């Protein structure tokens, strides 16, 4: 018996006001590819229903269209991201900066361009920076750090959906009540019984050092037209985003954050605190042969209602391509594109985050995650982005050893669930 699908509006109209013609055109190409994909897949499903197999031409065309959809979506997302990038060194920021910030910015630029560190060292000593250490580099201006962190949130799909804390120490400790605080009902004049003690667990999130090492030529550093803040930010943000995302998904917690896939997965019926529950598809390395959308619906309702309202899907491109072919009991495609350029697609009414570091569908793979990642996964950033100038190691180039400290791990084990492509 086919289960009912969660509420969803399948047909939406795009509102592209405020976007450039280039973005509008990319969105139109994306939607045309998706419509052609649906027509081709309908034909394939019709062949499977009546002939028990689909012809090779239809399968190959469907694969090409899937690739076209992904290509158009990537192009569209890049254009939208480019249009949203912050403007470096604009007048509003400059006018709003304090004298101290301007001095830091000027001293930092002198250090990057020529290696002059005296003024930068004085500024950090005056600020009583506990981490001031010439051998470990110098703190970048707040404006530059803010730009990098803002860009990371746009570039890293997990950072964009997870919880976040900024700390000044190397470890963040968080007490968590496993069974909730003791509570109850009493009459107005009745005696107040003692409440039972909460069971508390202390979660620790150590921050680990993440580095990037962009290189510059003397010509670039001598060119006064080059915005040093912008150059530093652009050089490190994509590298940081790639490393972070991989660690937030698969990290083993050794010199890197602990990824949510590194925790022990258990069947949802046997779930306990400290583990992550999963729902099995019943078929090794695949969805259920009959009504595959039921597997996804089961996963949705394995998450408690308190978390479900802010839940989303996390999966990679190849898994999304397989799900894109699935219809519900009413003949509607369960995957739908975003209503406008830059908006996430939806699956059974919940938004989708595409994360390439998630495993593809295979034997006993945990290829689909679902839940409230804002409550479930925590990213901890230690304040301060540091740079050490190295003009010696790779002459004639100047290396900039850029570091930040970041940690991560699950903070609520009941907020995230997996779909396991296995028999049990």
What do these coordinates show?
With 424 residues, this protein is α+β, with helices and mostly antiparallel strands. It has a domain at 140-178 and 200-316 and 355-424: Major capsid protein gp5 (Major capsid protein gp5 fold, 2-Layer Sandwich), CATH 3.30.2400.10. It has 13 helices and 16 strands. It has helices spanning 21-51, 56-83, 91-96, 99-114, 118-126, 142-155, 157-161, 218-222, 228-250, 293-300, 305-308, 317-323, 373-376; strands at 138-139, 163-167, 171-177, 200-206, 208-212, 215-216, 265-267, 276-280, 312-315, 335-336, 346-347, 350-354, 365-371, 377-390, 398-410, 416-421. Helix 1 packs antiparallel against helix 2, helix 4 (99-114) runs antiparallel to helix 5 and helix 6 crosses helix 9 (228-250).
SSE map:
Layout: H1 21-51, H2 56-83, H3 91-96, H4 99-114, H5 118-126, E1 138-139, H6 142-155, H7 157-161, E2 163-167, E3 171-177, E4 200-206, E5 208-212, E6 215-216, H8 218-222, H9 228-250, E7 265-267, E8 276-280, H10 293-300, H11 305-308, E9 312-315, H12 317-323, E10 335-336, E11 346-347, E12 350-354, E13 365-371, H13 373-376, E14 377-390, E15 398-410, E16 416-421
Helix pairs in contact: 1-2, 4-5, 6-9
